[in-house]
């Protein structure tokens, strides 16, 4: 069994539709995965299972040696840091940046019920510092720019010192400068040997941070290709994933893809 994540024939059926269709996937310690796929491919559904927010309809989903359905998910959750639009929507807008991060230690999004240790506050502050947010710790979450919000969410996901970090579309809604800043920070995270295994979901090759090692390509709930990034991110696999004739351009660890006939318009 893979040490971080081991999915065997993971299938999710909702309303008669197969959102995920027999997905096999293994993640080992130290790996940094990109999950690529078009709208509706099932990426978020897959992350919901990896983040213990959803059970598969069939197949087995194991994270960190524990199998969904046979483990108390509340014990597993602190070991899996998750940043997603759905979770961000649950954060009260009036919450301060520091509280948004520190409350992750207790699996809540509001601060009113818990007593917090100084140690947790120090860790939250250190994470916010690492993610360039130390001057904004007392700001209300709702008042932040989209880029700042994304960095707070990542700091929050790291608060429990997880063994698996899942970032579902962390660059969505960012402007070019914000995206490049995030890509650089994620590349530094990828290079950090002490960092957890990472899974990053995106639609865009430009958002793949240098240093990411593997890619899972999804289409209509099924795996098109999966494996080491350099061998797996090919024009043939992109064509099969996005149903488009794409030219793949690699440059210094960064990637982009354009339609092969884009010069003709
Ligand atoms: N409860 C549900 N019942 C039926 N269909 C659903 C349900 N939840 C999600 N879907 C469908 O499942 C498919 C996969 O959704 P999912 O959000 O996982 O895709 P995605 O790859 O993350 O898409 P996007 O890139 O647009 O965020 C979509 O077609 C969606 O409409």
TrEMBL record:
Keywords: ATP-binding, Nucleotide-binding. The keyword Ubl conjugation does not apply. SMART domains: AAA. Residues 5-245 form the ABC transporter domain. The keyword Transcription regulation does not apply. It comes from the Bacteria. Pfam families: ABC_tran. GO terms for molecular function: ATP binding; ATP hydrolysis activity. SUPFAM superfamilies: P-loop containing nucleoside triphosphate hydrolases. This is Iron complex transport system ATP-binding protein. It comes from Zhihengliuella halotolerans.
């Amino acid at each position: 069994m893979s040490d971080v994540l081991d999915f065997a024939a993971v299938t999710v059926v909702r309303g008669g539709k197969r959102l995920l269709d027999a997905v096999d996937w293994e993640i080992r310690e130290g790996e940094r995965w990109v999950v690529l796929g078009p709208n509706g491919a099932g990426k978020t559904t897959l992350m919901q299972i990896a983040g213990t927010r959803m059970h598969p309809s069939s197949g087995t989903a194991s994270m960190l040696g524990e199998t969904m359905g046979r483990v108390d998910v509340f014990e597993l959750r602190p070991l899996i840091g998750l940043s997603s639009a759905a979770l961000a929507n649950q954060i009260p807008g009036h919450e301060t940046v520091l509280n948004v991060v520190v409350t992750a230690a207790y699996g809540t999004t509001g601060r009113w019920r818990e007593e917090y240790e100084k140690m947790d506050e120090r860790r939250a502050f250190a994470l916010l510092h690492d993610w360039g947010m130390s001057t904004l710790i007392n700001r209300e979450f709702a008042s932040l720019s989209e880029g700042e919000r994304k960095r707070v969410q990542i700091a929050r996901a790291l608060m429990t010192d997880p063994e698996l970090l899942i970032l579902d579309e962390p660059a969505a809604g960012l402007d070019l400068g914000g995206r490049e800043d995030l890509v650089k920070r994620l590349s530094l995270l990828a290079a950090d040997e002490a960092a957890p295994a990472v899974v990053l979901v995106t639609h865009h090759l430009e958002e793949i941070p240098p240093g990411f090692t593997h890619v899972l390509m999804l289409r209509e709930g099924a795996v098109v290709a999966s494996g080491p990034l350099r061998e797996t991110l090919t024009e043939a696999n992109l064509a099969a994933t996005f149903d488009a004739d794409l030219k793949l351009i690699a440059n210094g660890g960064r990637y982009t893809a354009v339609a092969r006939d884009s010069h003709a318009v």
